[in-house]
Design a protein that fits this description.
Blueprint: H1 7-13, E1 21-27, H2 34-56, H3 59-74, E2 84-90, E3 93-99, E4 106-110, H4 116-124, E5 128-133, E6 138-143, E7 148-151, H5 160-164, H6 168-171, H7 176-201, E8 206-210, H8 212-221, E9 228-233, H9 241-272, E10 276-278, H10 280-288, E11 292-298, E12 305-307, E13 314-316, E14 326-327, H11 330-340, E15 344-348, E16 359-363
Parallel strand pairs: 5-8, 8-9, 11-15
Antiparallel strand pairs: 1-2, 1-4, 2-3, 5-6, 6-7, 10-16, 11-16, 12-13, 12-14
Length: 365
């Protein structure tokens, strides 16, 4: 299963489709009284859900779902360090997820649960490695959208250790600047060796920060040139985490653009091999037949559709012909189908997929 699909999200995806399925996704505002604030926001959300249920579904089903939803809301104990919450309720299923990612409020009543926002947020959650080098020490961090966590590699973190551990021939140099160069290279060799384990454990973009002099030395000896996303020149020894994050932001945008261009190249290559489905009706058909290796979709693309005579056939519609064969958003359904069958999903910025009708599926070949 694709790593973006956690066991909790998988549990929601595999829930039996049973109308009405209610999804409430909401940010958690870090207030003094988080529980009271969340209860207040969810009460308004529940009132909206109740209004839509009573307008579109039988009374008994609506009452059952609302009883479950209000009981769920009443029993919530918000997790202080989480950023958002997702509630899923149907006549046969209920689930609460606390999430580490920021979301926009969303309320959906449909035949299946809303998971697009969860998958999108996980795909957009920046994780990266930062190697901060200086003439005295080095520091290694695992960063994400909100925090930095120090990683402690095997190699000693300060250059002083290597000064005392220098070979005798180095200690006898009359030229102290040459001695410093050799000590620095030894220090950097040990750091580069420590990267072997780190890069195997965290297959993430790596940013290496330091002065021109120390980065020049590191570039000459590193075995990990291919894993380094960017060398960034400057003295960042005293930089705070917010300052480091702000400095790295433009480089994330650059990485994102490169990734999107690489995705487009993959679509072109797959089209040349006759292994690409284009447009929602083709994509739906191939996904339903378990042929989806990679789904690429513009991030805000949505399609209302109607089921056809067979499971792998749908038609775009503006209004439902019958309520129970209507699909409010076929794109969400396709995302779930592809992920459940072991494929992957990539979201791409709007207007990138114009020639592919906003959605394309790379098939297994």
């Amino acid at each position: 299963m694709n790593p973006i699909v956690t066991p909790e999200i998988l549990n929601v995806m595999k829930a039996v489709h049973y109308r009405p399925a209610v999804s409430i996704i909401m940010p958690l505002e870090q207030k003094m009284n988080l529980k009271a604030g969340l209860a207040h926001s969810l009460k308004f959300a529940a009132d909206k859900v109740e209004k839509e249920l009573l307008e579109n579904y039988p009374g008994e089903l609506s009452i059952l779902v609302m009883q479950k939803l209000r009981a769920m809301i009443k029993g919530l104990e918000p997790e202080v360090h989480k950023k958002s919450i997702a509630l899923y309720v149907s006549p046969v299923f209920e689930k609460v997820l606390y999430l580490d990612m920021a979301v926009e409020e969303k309320i959906i009543v449909d035949e299946s649960f809303e998971i697009r926002d969860l998958i999108y947020c996980k795909k957009q959650l920046h994780k990266y490695l930062v190697l901060l080098l200086s003439g005295k020490e080095y520091r290694m961090y695992l960063g994400n959208s909100d925090s930095f966590v120090r990683i402690v590699p095997d190699a000693p973190a300060t250059m002083a250790v290597y000064q005392h551990d220098s070979p005798e021939r180095v200690a006898n140099f009359s030229d102290m600047s040459e001695r410093k160069e050799i000590v620095m290279d030894k220090f950097l060799h040990h750091i580069d060796s420590a990267l072997d384990t780190i890069l195997n454990s965290y297959q993430l973009p790596l940013f290496v920060l330091g002065t021109e002099r120390i980065l020049g030395h590191f570039k000459k000896l590193t075995k990990h040139e291919g894993a380094i996303s960017k060398y960034i020149h400057g003295n960042y020894e005293e930089a705070t985490f917010p300052q480091l994050k702000e400095m790295l932001e433009p480089h994330f945008a650059e990485l994102k653009l490169k990734k999107q261009i690489a995705i487009l190249h993959r679509l072109e290559e797959s089209a040349g091999k006759k292994a690409l489905a284009v447009g929602i009706t083709e994509v739906w058909r191939e996904a339903m037949n378990h042929k989806g290796q990679l789904l690429v979709v513009e991030k805000n693309y949505m399609v209302a559709a109607q089921h056809g005579s067979q499971e792998d056939v749908i038609y775009k519609v503006a209004e439902p012909a019958t309520n129970f064969s209507y699909i409010k958003d076929a794109v969400d359904e396709v995302i779930e189908i592809v992920l459940e069958n072991g494929g992957d999903v990539e979201f791409i910025d709007e207007n990138f997929l114009g020639e592919y009708q906003q959605i394309a599926l790379v098939k297994y070949y």
